Amino acid sequence: MNTEETNVEPEHEAKTKDAPEPKDAEDPVQVAADADATEADVSEADLDQDEQEKQPMTGGGDRAEDAPSADGEAVLSGEKNGSVKLKIPEEVEEVKFMGLTKEELLRVAGTPGWVRTRWALLVVFWLGWLGMLVGAVFIILQAPRCRDLPPTNWWNNGLLYQIGHVQAFTDTHNLKGLEQKMDGLSQLKVKGLVVGPIHVAPPDEAANLRFEEISPEAGNLEQFRGLMQTAHRKGISVVLDLTPNYQGSSGPWFANISVRNVAERLKSALVFWLNEGVDGVQLSGVEHVASMVPSLWSDIRAIVQNNTDERPNKRVLMGVTERSSAEEVSSLLSSSGVDLLISRVLCCRDMEATERARSIQLLYSSHSQTKLVWSLRGWAEGHLASLVGLAQVKLHQLLLFTLPGTPVFNYGDEIGLMDEGTKFPQMLWDLDEKVNDTLQEDRAERLSCRSFFRGLSELRGKERSLLFGDFVLLSNSSSSLAYLRVWDQSERYLAAFNWADESDVLQLSGAMLPRQATVVLSTNSSALPADSSVDLTNLRLGPGQATLLRFPYTG
């Protein structure tokens, strides 16, 4: 082989230089052998290169380390198989601040500078704490003190519902049917149920009077016990009317000569019924027995009103009188000692609003409102719709619920039940059923009346201003009336009424009144929608319209 014509790769130069120079005449066999060996070497080198290319470019352990350049960057080094090795310098570990050691802290803590700083911070802390304490005490002392709630009894917390004729109130015409109506009465938020009279009392026959026996037409003692148990579970108290001669014409206590005898018999009957669990007693004509037999009347009061170990709960003694003068009613309320006295103060249909306001103001100023009761009649006077007209039922419902005292209603007053020739019309219970087109309008009016009644009853039972708030007369004329009910910092309620046949404008202003108020309820919801705002300086009420407004306490 001629060396001058051979092109050898740089890596094989050393081998070529070291090889002996060929002779002029070589053995052909030797030349062939050398060619085979050279071919074998080339093939082996190719195989080695293929293997090396399969290796990762991180370099092998048999290769020399690449030296970093002078500027610290990585230096690429070539390998005979074309692979590249990248040298990455190690990252410098970040120095973390470890804070002072315990020994160092102890040395620093005792220095004068730190001691003064600690004392300064301590003084600032306690001065700030004492300042906040003094500020809190000052705010408490300067804030208006809440009024103590007045003492009340169960009959001051909601309406009393009178059922003078059990047979007319229920479908079954007895006390069992009355028990079945407790759910409906509970929905109306009735607080007390005044039942009867139901005892045996032949008209004008004092000798046959039996207080402790229930008339068979009304039911029996077992039914009455079931009624009381169900009522008490619903939170409704039961008052029993024990008026002696409730069916006669000679007066509620028969003839005058019989008053003493009847009062004596009543005393034992009261003990019997109170032991049965009744929550109070109602008596008509209290002025007669209180004046004619005062000692016996004192005994009657003591039996009902005094609590005992057997009867720890407070019982109510309710009286009914025919008197209508506010002065006479006030005098009887004081002299008789009854807890509540139903009278005819508001009963006159033609009474002007001015006289009505005067009567209310007189009774309110003379007695605690916990002893006042408001009604338009006794149990035998008839129903509200017959006394004032169906169009003004809602107006008088609003009046009775918002006056300072306990409202008393007859059964059916919540739906505008009319007497229709009898003082005890049959109660209507099918208002939720479908009716023909002829009765649809009447049904809708009764449902509206009941909804209005229920809304007022709910408010009366939960709003402090209506429960026991102060009564402030704002305005009154011959046909209109407006007053305010306020209690401490509770929401205020303003009731306004117009009895006239034409519209009236009330101009209400004063230190206690804002310019605007919100409508809660109105007898004419299209004219004064609920939640709408009205101007108190220009409050317009339509004919026979009434409204209840509210506004917040502002301090």
UniProtKB/TrEMBL annotation:
Organism phylogeny: Eukaryota, Metazoa, Chordata, Craniata, Vertebrata
Designated name of the protein: 4F2 cell-surface antigen heavy chain
SMART domains, sorted: Aamy
Residue span of region Disordered: 1-78
Residue ranges crossing the lipid bilayer per the database entry: 119-141
Record flagged with keyword Ribonucleoprotein: no
Keywords: Membrane, Transmembrane, Transmembrane helix
Source organism per UniProt: Channa argus (Northern snakehead)
Superkingdom as given in the UniProt entry: Eukaryota
